[in-house]
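Researcher: Following up on the earlier apo prediction. This time include the ligand. It's flavin-adenine dinucleotide, with the SMILES given after the sequence.
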Amino acid sequence: MHFGFTDEQAQLRDAVRRFLADRSPFGEVRHLMATKAGYDPTVWRELCQDLALAGVHVPEEYGGQGFTFRELGVVLEEMGRALYCGPYFSSTVLAATAILEAGSEDDKAALLPGLASGDRLASLALAETDGEWDVGAIGVVAENGTLSGTKSHVVDGCIADLLLVAVRQPGTAGMDGLSLYAIDASAEGVTRTPLEALDPTRKLARVNLDGAQARLVGREGHAGPALRRTLDLAAAALANEMVGGAARLLESAVEYAKERVQFGRAIGSFQAVKHRLADLTLTVELAKSAAYQAANAAADDDADLPALASLAKSAASDAYMQAAKDCIQLHGGIGFTWDNDTHLFYKRAKSSEVFLGDPAKHRERLMQHWRTPPASATSSPSRAAPTAERQPDTPKAAGVRREVRSWLETNWDPNSRLVAWRTKLAGSGWGMPTWPSAWFGHDLPQALAPVVDEEFARIGAVTAAKTGIRILAGATLLEHGSDDQKARFLRRILTGEDTWCQLFSEPGSGSDLAGATTRADFDGEHWIVNGQKVWTTSAHHADYGLLLARTDWDVPKHQGLTYFILDMRQDGVDVHQLKQMNGHASFNQVFFTDAVIPPENRVSDIGNGWQVAITTLAHERRGADGLRGQAREGGLEGSIYEEERREVATVMEPYKWYPQRAGRVDLVVERANVTGRIADPVVRQEIAKLLVMARSAEWTARRARAAQERGQPQGPEGSLGKLAASNVARQACHVHTLIAGPDAMLTGTDGALDGLIAEILVSVPAVSIAGGTDEIQRNIIAERVLGLPKEPRMDRGPFREVRRN
Ligand SMILES: Cc1cc2nc3c(=O)[nH]c(=O)nc-3n(C[C@H](O)[C@H](O)[C@H](O)COP(=O)(O)OP(=O)(O)OC[C@H]3O[C@@H](n4cnc5c(N)ncnc54)[C@H](O)[C@@H]3O)c2cc1C
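Model: Understood. Below is the ligand-bound prediction.
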């Protein structure tokens, strides 16, 4: 799978965007939508001749550019952004693709060059009077090369020179007996009537055929699969066009929210507006990921195309409509005017929502064609996930694979002692290969880490201790710790000898972590800590804590904090477990009474703790899934697995319900099958919504990673991922409830899957609180991704004077 665009694709995008900004501004769109033809032949010619776009995905031997659906997707996304008015979708996407799929070599050679050069315009006439793009329901008949019947909703049908008409042989039904014919639009027996389209930027026509002479394309009676595939490819293409429009609407809404002032402030500083835009950002990003993957599937001839195209079409339809509704709403009265451009997008969104099938139909199609299982709750892009998506190795990846495989062949011994093995791993750098080689790593870019994970998983080799808060401690110390701290702690983190906890939240400050009142005072020799932390996961097992404490009360709150490593095994630290609503007790209250920290365990400069805390929090959001799933499949032999199992049952015990709090998407399809609820159309729709969400979230995380690999710094996109994880978990909880039915009233051994489903239902509420609430993620997305103004603050000035709990 491709998760980024190449430089050439980026250049193509730039060129199309510049061209459309210059030749197809909104003023021009408004002018053209009021014309009968709906396009400007001069601009079309330039688009075909100067940019050679009409044959982007048509092979060179037929006069095209020989690119793939990926490049076609880029062009369409830009056209969607600009609401380009022209026969591109009808001629290049629908008609040329139908010929490519159904035609013989002779047909392609005869018909495609004219379309690829843009000299001839064509369209696909498939839907009939009910307007459904249903291949099996085609009724127009062909007898002895003449066609009779009515086609409707034919895009650009009135300006096309050539019509590709889907027909059936008399006496056949369903997918049998279907053919594709090409007909000269001006031929006798062809009558074209413009339809009044809701979206005036996409012209539609009804075509009556009355014994019109036509030319067969491909084999008589065998076009069913080619037509079905054409619709899948077109759905993938349309999804890309739609996400372009959705992204443009989001930009427009954000721009307006920054400018428009009410109640003395920009409306974008109101949380109701910010949160709406943050949610929309997530929706649009997920839909983009889905659209890009559908284009990839089309380009790579992926067997999953039917499912992926439908996934993308439903996601893009919902995202585009949401963007259009939100954009109008946030513009207020002006958003409902003719003069504001938003309604042009709204109408395109509404029309595209049903074009080629509405979202519910595509969700149903997704359910029928779903093959690739969703990522399991215990896997993440960063962990070994040997799925159907595994791509051939790049030369670099192959080199790493060889190296790690040979190292494992020489060194892996399932009968080693756990700590001894992990010590060896730490020394080799393969335990944490993305860390610097100076500190137990291999300097590997993040992109290559999965290769190493796969090699470990392949032979069942035990990995470094990568789970729990200890890995946040490792990441934070790598970035901010002294060499002495790195030397003392990093190796023991990777071997799992030390367990860590995160001492941030307090009874009076959770979301507002910088409001911490636990104090650390220097007595000339040591730091002395007094106060209380709460919700501290795993504190009852921890050897060390990452502590954020106040060291100065007379400066603004963010400037008076210092970041420490606190030894949890001392008299001044008192830990009390708290029972959670799901019955587990993984978090704690922690009381400090003159707890002692030696000066060498101060991580940040005095007063600079907030900067270090931000690093920990960013890693926590990004790697929320890194905290999950330590369970290993059974059946592996060797004493090391015994030790590993003991570790999971003891120090890692607080995390054992974490897969359940993420919603266990991996169980859904199987449970629906086993219980028979898969037959319920309502349940099928909800499952499909979940699969769309979960899959798109996974791809979005991979896109973010691919961007980092291309050198873009890690940004606040972790908040998008965290918010997506909450949405996925909530929808999974809803779907598990629907599947369980009355059994959702039961728990323990009386409950479904021996209480596992009940555990999901009562654990999911944690996911949108732990690690920063959904509301805080929305604030971060709104302010740091979208650049909306910050809220007015009531907590400036010396912390001592700030109102607190
Ligand atoms: C399972 C679990 C494990 C946890 N583990 C740890 C841990 O190991 N270490 C640790 O330090 N903490 C841990 N936490 C604590 C967690 O980080 C906090 O609960 C969380 O940040 C919220 O803080 P709070 O509970 O004080 O709620 P509050 O901050 O009081 O929030 C209450 C409500 O107000 C909303 N709110 C607050 N501020 C704003 C705002 N500016 N805009 C809009 N809405 C706002 C919140 O979104 C929330 O809905 C854990 C929590 C859970 C549930």
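Model: Confidence is low (pLDDT under 50) at residues 374-389, 625-630.
Researcher: Noted. I'll compare it with the apo version next.
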